[in-house]
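Thread: Newbie trying to understand structure tokens

Hi all, I'm a second-year student working on a class project, and my supervisor (Dr. K.) asked me to get a predicted structure for one chain before our next meeting. I've only ever worked with sequences, so writing a 3D structure as a token string is new to me. If someone could post the tokens and maybe explain what I'm looking at, I'd be very grateful. Here's the chain:
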Amino acid sequence: MADKDVLPAANPAALGLVAFGLTTVLLSLVNAGVLPKGGEPVVIPLALAFGGLMQIFAGAFEFRLGNTFGMTAFLSYGAFWWWFALLLLFAGNHWIDISAAGPTIGAALLLWGVMTLYLWISTFRLSKVIFLIFLTLWVTFGLLGVGAIQGNAALGHLGGWLGLVCGALALYGSFGIVTNATFGRVIVPMGAKPFLS
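---
Reply by user tm_fold:
Sure, no problem. This is what the structure looks like when written as tokens:
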């Protein structure tokens, strides 16, 4: 097949964003108090099979495309969902004891927020939708982390509500990528680069 006959690669960000967005919305509904805390284990299989695994696939495909940002983001957040699910599984089945962990989980969430903050800086060169996803995500991690460290349920709920916004933005981003690619033109606006050209 001649080079001119080779189809362009599909954009793996569509898969990564929907996997992240859907899982984030479900967990955030629990964190915000819309769904009961007892529903948190329902997130585990979704986090493993969709939020985690599909983002890892998306990150691997971004690697093949030479997209350092996409590779780092999707592989990292895919691993986040595996960490979260395994933490719940291991602790829930008494394979690990986190009863004396104190602020450690909150500190871990803050570290995820720090990583997200540095990725957010790179989104200044990307679309407004991606910029807003990462903005809301690092603040969400901050609220959840500080809330966990302080035992402040109100901060955790606020983090849940902001997580809902973040997850909805990710779903919108995936919708935009898929729809625009399918129609071959911009149907769903993603926003121009917010600051840098």
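A couple of things are worth pointing out once you decode it. Helices lie at 13-31, 40-65, 68-92, 104-122, 128-150, 153-183. The first helix runs from residue 13 to 31. Feel free to ask follow-ups in this thread.
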